[in-house]
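Review form for a predicted model. The reviewer records the input and the model, then writes brief findings.
Reviewer: anonymous (R2)
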Amino acid sequence: MPSLRKQRDPEGRMSLADHLRELRNRITISAIAILIGAVVGWIYYNQIIAKLTKPLTDLDRERDGVVNINFANMTDAFALQLTTSIFVGLILASPIWLFQIWRFIVPGLTQKEKLVSRLFVVAAVPLFLAGCFFAFIMVPKAVAVLLGFTPVGAYNLQDGSQYLNFVLKFIVAFGCAFLLPVFLVALNLIGVLSARSMLKGWRPAVMIILVFAAIMTPTPDAYTMLFLASPMVLLYFASVGLAFLFDRRKEEHKPDWLDVPDDRPSPL
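Model under review:
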């Protein structure tokens, strides 16, 4: 009896319908992982919200005016807890959705590319978490600077949703920014992107980084955008340097018969 399951193309080619089904499956797996992480965030919400609002409570003790978050509507507290839990789930589930993104980008993997996929996840997860941690450390300084313009004796009651949107988006944006070199180096290792192409396209790459930073930063000022864009640009050129090293190593281990012109017989 013939198998009802569709056989995968050995060369990794897929139709548009197969790509859409693959995308649906990857999104479903990522969403389930994020949902499980969100449950953990919901359970430990009080401890998490205490850490995220600590910059405000510290300023409240230092200043005469009142500095804290404010809930304007009856449903704001529930919406805030739900949003915070989802962001926590996004961070906790990062090994799962990062792997799903990479498998969707490179669906037909050779043995070498499967090894690169494992290395990609091993390198991407610590970098993503490092970016989130770096942003978490910088949040108190950013809050102190922005709220430092409050007149003495004035109240500064932050809308809870807006404040948490600022903090959580700031953290996730830095986590995503730290993933840039991993994607570029992984694409270089599997032969999709050469180091020369990366160096040649540095101008549009910097422009894309600036646009990404402008979209991801929660405040409209240019300083926050540049604060996020600067490490991304440095990471981009660092990945270009690594790509040149890997390309040189590929050239050194390339068989001699590959350099023979087409109109001459090879030693083989």
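Findings: Residues 111-147 form the longest helix (37 residues).
Further findings: The two ends are 44 Å apart (CA to CA).
Recommendation: see findings above.
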